[in-house]
Structure formats: structure tokens, C-alpha cells
Amino acid sequence: MTSLGLPESIRACLFDLDGVLTRTATVHAAAWKEMFDAFLRARDGEGFRPFDAVEDYDRYVDGMPRADGVRSFLASRGIRLPEGDPDDPPERDTVQGLGTRKNAIVLEKIKEMGVEAFEGSVRYVHAARAAGLRRAVVSSSANCHDVLVAAGIADLFEVRIDGVVAAERKLPGKPRPDTFLEAARELGVSPAQAAVYEDALAGMEAGRAGDFGYVVGVDRVGQAEALRSHGADVVVQDLEQLLGEAGEHT
Q1: What is the DSSP secondary structure assignment for residue 49, as one 8-state letter?
Q2: Dihedral over alpha carbons 99, 76, 83, 174 (to 10 degrees)
Q3: How far apart are CA 185 and CA 182, in angstroms?
Q4: Do β-strands 214-218 and 134-138 pair in parallel, antiparallel, or remain unpaired?
Q5: Global pTM value
Q6: Residue 199 and residue 98 in contact, taking contact as beta carbons nearer than 8 Å
Q7: pLDDT (tens digit per residue) in 150-177
Q8: Are 121 and 1 in contact (CB under 8 A)?
Q9: Relative to the CA of 180, which of 44, 118, 166, 167 has its CA 20 to 30 Å away?
Q10: Hey, how many other C-beta atoms are within 10 angstroms of the C-beta on 123?
């Protein structure tokens, strides 16, 4: 499987969405910042410490289910809020309410800005399909289907395990491996026969915890060493680097 940069034993590819297939990670980071900054300003006044759209995003929310990201970041600031209910309105200061607020912001930003797929990733997925590999998208986003459709790549994947499916099946999110394991199960392969493609540290940990056959780290923000230390077998800046033996790994 050298033409795809994979071991010969791999039979399926499990792709994260944001940051791997689509350029939506920056949109999500901006939405998290807008939501958290408004919350912190109202709570602490104008002297509040803002949410860092790079460091705080990478460390506390990237790749996680929405509510887990809210809890994780708030805990880093020593803040505890009531859990609330999934149908809490966005103005309610609960974990679920803040998550709803963030989702409303990101949907508006996607509507305004549109969704762009990484061309190298699209070429790679086409090559994987041509090689007869099974393909799934594994994302914590509840908006995964809409993003895939907006990017024009929904038809490239046989299985979608996203935030909606995870909630229905009560699957814990990344860094637990359960959503990736569910995708492999639906594709009819063992974890050892599946490759995981992720740009988030939580996704790297999920790939390692699930004993998958190969874990590809996609470094869009200059965190190659962190991706390796969290479980990546190889790190590339774009999936197109894996196409053919000439691809250079970082």
C-alpha cells in the first residue's frame, strides 16, 4: 500500500473532519473564542483573560464533543457550571447552554463563510476509494453531515460516525476510541486493519487507545512533535504527501 503511505494490512481509512478533510477548524476555534470571551467578560468584567484560539483550543476543546470541550476549558480556569439539559437555550449559563451558544455561532459562521475541503485530502480519499479501501468519517461534530454536503464530499464516505450518532448510541467521544471503533465495526474491519487520520491531540490518543493499525497525524498548525508524542505513527502537513513513494513525511 506504498502508493497511499500505509502498511499492507490496512483495509479501511477513518478520517476526522475538521482540520483533516475540511478547513473548518479555524471556524470552530473562532466560534469557541467568541462564545467563551462573551461568557468570561460577563462573569469577570473587562479585565477577563480571553480564550486563546490557538493554545486553549488545541489543549482543551479540539476534537472533543461539544459539552466535553466546555467542561474541559472551564475546568482549566477553575470554573464549574451546572450541567443543564441538552435543550437549554443559548443564554443559559450551563455546560449545555454554552455548548448550544457555541453551536449557533459556528453555524452562522459556516453559513457566512461556506466550507472548503482540503484539495490534497480530497485527492487522497479518491485514491483510497480507487484502491478499494473502505472509508468513514469520524467526527465529534453534530454538524458533520451538513459540512460534508456543503464541501461537496459526502458521497466519498460509506460510514459517518458523528456527534449525532455518538449521542444516539451513547458512545463516549475522543480521546476515548469508541467512535473510531464503531466506524471500523460498521465497515467490517478490525482496528488493526484500519488507519486513523487526525489533526487533534485527542484524536491521536483515541487512535493509540484503540490499537489501530496505523495513525496518521495531520499537522496544520505546527504541532508535529505533540502529534507524535500523543500516538501518531507518521505526521504530514497534508494527506497528499502520502500519495506515492515520493511523499515526504515530517
Answers
A1: P
A2: 60
A3: 5
A4: unpaired
A5: 0.78
A6: no
A7: 899 999 999 999 999 999 999 999 999 9
A8: no
A9: 118
A10: 14
